[in-house]
Design goal:
Helix content: 40-55%
Radius of gyration: 19 Å
Number of strands: 8
Number of helices: 11
Largest sheet: 8 strands, parallel, barrel
Structural class: alpha/beta
Bound molecules: SN-glycerol-3-phosphate
């Protein structure tokens, strides 16, 4: 399973990358706004910086919602760096655009996916990644991890090549559950990635090893 970080914060991207386990980055307009990046030029420049920092797939989201606008924007985003994956929303015009990008050699990440039906459409259009939003599904009273399992079952049965990118991750447990459910990629905030490190018995055990080692110095 690939590990992506879900942020536009450069310090957090660097910290995750320094761990040596990072395979890519996802962002969205809300994450860009959170770090104060506004306007097309600044956003494009920020994507370029992220691509220079991390050697992996970097999702860059379009903000157009009509076919021509999505295509024009996606082409410009894809021209920033070969590792850019154009992130397109799961809407009718988005599905058409994903098919166009697929036919023209541009990789896409279909975002805002909340059902198996949407995941099937994204795969049919040839999306490289499909992004079900686990945390937001849980927030609405449904089971996000169960959706990952359902999509993984359908893709495997039908032979779809689209990779399942579990997004809207809220905890280290979400990462583990998505791994069990068959996600190909999990994109998480830094806090959830670092949360995987933690276990009280590791801390207690290490304190004991270090104190015993001191006794023999
Ligand atoms: O990048 C999309 C997704 O991960 C958003 O997460 O926490 O805003 O639901 P969240």
């Amino acid at each position: 399973m690939k590990f992506f970080i879900d942020t536009a914060d450069l310090a957090q991207i660097k910290e995750a990358n320094d761990l040596g386990i990072l395979d890519g980055v996802t962002t969205n307009p809300s994450l860009m706004a959170k770090v104060g990046i506004k306007g097309e030029a600044a956003v494009f420049n920020h994507y370029k910086t992220i691509c220079e920092l991390v050697d992996g797939d970097i999702s860059a989201e379009v903000v157009s919602t009509d076919f021509d606008g999505i295509i024009a924007e996606g082409k410009k985003l894809a021209a920033i760096h070969p590792n850019i994956i154009v992130k397109v929303p799961m809407i009718k015009e988005g599905v058409k655009a994903i098919k166009w990008f697929t036919d023209n050699g541009i990789k896409t990440n279909c975002t805002l996916v909340f059902s198996a039906g949407q995941a099937i459409l994204a795969a049919k259009a040839g999306a490289a990644y499909v992004s079900p939003f686990i945390g937001r599904i849980d927030d609405s009273g449904w089971d996000g991890v169960q959706l990952i399992e359902q999509i993984a079952g359908i893709y495997s049965l039908q032979g779809f090549a689209t990779e399942i990118l579990a997004a809207s991750i809220r905890s280290p447990l979400h990462i583990v559950k998505c791994a069990e459910a068959g996600a190909d990629v999990v994109t998480s905030p830094l806090e959830s990635i670092l949360g995987l490190l933690k276990h009280p018995l590791t801390d207690i055990g290490l304190a004991k090893f270090l104190s015993d080692a001191k006794a023999f110095k």
